[in-house]
Specification:
Length: 134
């Protein structure tokens, strides 16, 4: 009798949040609760900061709409993503040390094991994401 190869474990959750500054905190808290549920407390600090930066960037790209926080637990990594309805790519600008903003995607790149973005057709927009190895 042959054996069946185990499938890659993949669990995803999605939260819809209105694009307003108060929901940056909610996105962090939802990330924390989810990672604790998945027994991954060692990823909390980096994941919370990554989600905070991704949500803040999406907030500026699509103010006044809904955003979606996407969290996926794969076999070897956790991926955090934010969907917004603006299909334009995220812009990684030059960091001006005198400015209070503009460092978000640099922070994400520094913390994440992998990161990127892609357009989506349904619903139309894009997902900016980052992953942390387990």
């Amino acid at each position: 009798m042959g054996s069946i190869a185990p499938e890659t474990v993949k669990i995803s959750v999605k939260f819809t949040l209105y694009a307003e500054p108060a929901n940056v905190k909610m996105a962090r808290e939802l990330t924390e609760v989810t990672l604790l549920h998945w027994a991954l407390p060692h990823l909390l600090a980096d994941a919370r900061l990554i989600v905070s930066e991704l949500f803040t960037n999406a907030l500026h790209a699509a103010r006044g709409t809904d955003l979606r926080l996407l969290l996926t637990h794969e076999e070897t990594a956790v991926r955090s993503g934010i969907w917004d309805p603006n299909p334009e790519p995220p812009i990684i600008g030059v960091c001006d040390p005198l400015e209070e903003s503009g460092r978000g995607l640099h922070i994400v790149a520094a913390l994440a094991d992998d990161h990127g973005w892609h357009r989506v057709d349904s619903p139309p927009g894009k997902v900016v994401w980052a992953s942390l190895n387990i």
